[in-house]
Design a protein that fits this description.
425 residues; alpha+beta; eight-stranded mixed sheet; five-stranded mixed sheet; 15 helices; 16 strands; binds adenosine-5'-triphosphate; binds magnesium ion
Length: 425
């Protein structure tokens, strides 16, 4: 090994970034709990077969993006590229779906061998939600209102918009696929390279090609909406009516298809124009056939996953992270000499009791007041508390406001916590 280097496309999330991650994860978890969701934690590795059977053999993910390897006993294992397959596997294996509805959520790393770029990585993180056992548009609407509340909790409501579509049933998509292919075959030479390849594998994905010429060509193509059955139409209309009633704005995007085979009926994406090409921050839909396809009882389901990296980028781009989502300290306590250190150590504990929401750093490792002051400044702390022999004897630690200027002031130790609380408020 020549140079210490992480795997390409796999990022360390460094201490100056983790406060933003914690902010996001906490806010999202709070909202999910309030809607009655239960957390589930699955392994990162699953049998390769599970992903092939769920995501689909001819999808981008299974064709070229999976991290697959042979276990020591020869089993083919894959680092999960998404969470739905493992969640369904776990729920089914442990009988969580039998005669009951479930609202589940999970979070963790996912792995896809893609070309790394801004907002696209080989290890990335999702928070996912899966609801089982409910087949009406009621739960679809609830899920979408939940996502809207997530953006509200994160301060992103003005940055994202909702796109909706219905993919109909598997039979509808099969009929539509044939019609679309027939149309595209007449214009094959005008299609971009990627789309030409998809004609043989997954022609529906051509609909969301980013190529302008391909998009122009598609404006005269048969429309999926004309091929979906009455049941899917009613479902979609029901959903739209519920969203209208709830006042949640959306755009119907007839070209919205998802990259995974298991979706049918409702599909949706929350997109932003602030992140360039990687503008989808949350995506999901209904997958009523998946549980049965994996050998369980037919169980309707709907879910979504959001990309944490993209949401963090968005929070940073829009500068909506609250001040609390930083790693900054509030109080930096410095002492001179062994005895004062012991005194300060105990005092810091008292302050932590009195100010439970504040970050208090106790300077360790000695050094002059000057060098301690430099570290206090670098910690981002608003206040320094300084204790030498004199302050200790007089029971009056000195408090200095490091950001607003002002004199340093001796404060009676009994009043110290209140004094700090006031200054920090
Ligand atoms: P895209 O069209 O951007 O490739 P996708 O359709 O492959 O997305 P999904 O499988 O639906 O994405 O995953 C849900 C969300 O996870 C995406 O909307 C995105 O926010 C995030 N995501 C997907 N792939 C990556 C990746 N390689 N790096 C970072 N985030 C990702
Ligand atoms: Mg993708």
């Amino acid at each position: 090994m020549s140079k210490l280097q992480a795997i390409r496309g796999m990022n360390d999330i460094l201490p100056d970034q983790t406060p933003a991650w914690q902010f996001l994860e906490r806010r999202v978890a709070d909202v999910l709990v309030r809607y009655g969701y239960q957390e589930i934690r699955m392994p990162i590795l699953e049998q390769t077969e599970l992903f092939k059977r769920t995501i689909g053999e001819v999808t981008d993910i299974v064709e070229k993006e999976m991290y697959t390897f042979a276990d020591r006993n020869g089993d083919s294992l894959t680092l999960r590229p998404e969470g739905t397959a493992g969640c369904v596997r776990a729920a089914e294996q442990h009988g969580l779906l039998f005669n009951q509805v479930r609202r589940l959520w999970y979070t963790g790393p996912m792995f896809r061998h893609e070309r790394p770029q801004k907002g696209r990585y080989r290890q990335f993180h999702q928070i996912g939600v899966e609801c089982f056992g409910m087949n009406g548009p009621d739960i679809d609407a609830e899920v979408l209102l939940l996502t809207a509340r997530l953006w509200q909790a994160l301060g992103l409501t003005d940055e994202v918009t909702l796109q909706l579509n219905s993919l109909g049933s598997a039979a509808d998509r099969q009929r539509y696929r044939e019609a679309l292919l027939e149309y595209l075959q007449q214009h094959q030479e005008q299609l971009d390279e990627d789309s030409q390849r998809r004609m043989a594998t997954n022609p529906l994905r051509i609909l969301d090609s980013k190529n302008p010429q391909t998009q122009a060509l598609l404006s005269d193509a048969p429309a999926l909406a004309d091929y979906i059955d009455q049941d899917s139409r009613d479902h979609f209309q029901g959903l739209c009516a519920l969203l209208d009633k709830a006042g949640l704005a959306y755009t119907v995007n007839p070209r919205l298809v998802r990259g995974l085979d298991y979706y049918g009926k409702t599909v949706f994406e929350w997109v932003t124009d602030r992140l360039g090409a990687q503008g989808t921050v949350c995506a999901g839909g209904r997958y009523d056939g998946l549980v049965e396809q994996l050998g369980g009882r037919a169980t309707p389901a709907v879910g979504f996953a959001m990309g944490i990296e993209r949401l963090i980028l968005l929070l940073q781009t829009c500068e909506v992270l609250p001040e609390s989502a930083t790693a900054d300290a509030d109080i930096y306590l410095m002492t001179m000499g062994d005895e004062a250190f012991g005194y300060g150590l105990a005092l810091a504990e008292t302050l932590r009791d009195a100010l439970p929401e504040r970050v208090i750093i106790n300077h360790c490792g000695g050094g002059s007041f000057k060098s301690q002051m430099k570290k206090a400044d670098r910690s981002g702390a608003r206040l320094a508390i300084i204790i030498g022999d004199q302050e200790m004897t007089a029971q009056t630690p000195t408090v200095k406001d490091l950001r607003q200027g002002g004199e340093q002031q001796p404060i009676a130790v009994s009043l110290l916590a209140d004094h700090c609380r006031q200054l920090l408020a």
